[in-house]
From TrEMBL:
Protein name in UniProt: Rab GDP dissociation inhibitor
Recorded family membership: Belongs to the Rab GDI family.
Main location: cytoplasm
Native organism taxonomy: Eukaryota, Metazoa, Chordata, Craniata, Vertebrata
Source organism of the structure: Daubentonia madagascariensis
Molecular-function annotations in GO: GTPase activator activity
Amino acid sequence: MNEEYDVIVLGTGLTECILSGIMSVNGKKVLHMDRNPYYGGESASITPLEDLYKRFKLPGPPPASMGRGRDWNVDLIPKFLMANGLMGLFEKRRFRKFLVYVANFDEKDPRTFEGIDPKKTTMRDVYKKFDLGQDVIDFTGHALALYRTDDYLDQPCCETINRIKLYSESLARYGKSPYLYPLYGLGELPQGFARLSAIYGGTYMLNKPIEEIIVQNGKVIGVKSEGEIARCKQLICDPSYVKDRVEKVGQVIRVICILSHPIKNTNDANSCQIIIPQNQVNRKSDIYVCMISSAHNVAAQGKYIAIVSTTVETKEPEKEIRPALELLEPIEQKFVSISDLLVPKDLGTESQIFISRTYDATTHFETTCDDIKNIYKRMTGSEFDFEEMKRKKNDIYGED
């Protein structure tokens, strides 16, 4: 291990694995290590079900009604991926007119603006223009544009319109949902990017204790493990490896629920995402519900996994998520966790230590993608170009 690398990555959460793959594709010499013997970090998929019971310190094994333990792959932090509805149409004509406007909107073509200046007109004024009610505004901003607060309302409308376009185009791609969820759970994704990194020369070491991150003159120079030192120019890691360089900005409560039925009023869907806007429940933060099932090879036949999450606002977090839990009843088993929201204290440009943020309460990957792109820009000084990565990938795999 006494070698020099361009980049060392600590932790195998999805953020770290994606960045490891990207850096390898970009020609960097990458060493990727994790103290755990498995991929995924805090977003790991737990199998068999017996291990989930042990992790949450529940007494005894799962009941026989849960089926075979090996049939379960339970994501601790589930996230849907946007492919490129759970609410009926209300105020049909006005909302339809708004969606047609969004579909036709092109920020490069002023003929599509219809009197709206995308760089100056606020989203609040756009909603007024189409005379949309508060329920529709809540739905559009939080379920379509995927904002977590209402701060966007007083910002220029261009970004919000493009977010809604992404949702609509993703929905059109497959017809029923704008989201994707990997079979066998999210644990497959970090491994997929690990394989991509390996193809481009990246080295992986699991179950590797990290003794010290070595810094000289304020800049990282290597990592010490089992008495050996691997030198590097840059370091990527999750917050658990550098607790002195991160700060707590809040907490998230997550409740994993095992059900024997789909969620009511979802047309017996085998998967869905429900977002309860904060205005609807007198909160500052949205409440998220993600449900998946045996159709995704993550649960025994006839079983469903629903995970409720939100940002903690009081000293009684479980009371905060009651509106969501009521949607799921009856619940066979609950697994409750409360975790800290950690963010880096600085950008990492001086130390060259680039730290990811812990996963927030959202049940989609948009905020995680933002973090990945942000770290990439801080490391390289340039924006991430997905098309360029696809071209490099095709050199190995061939055209899709």
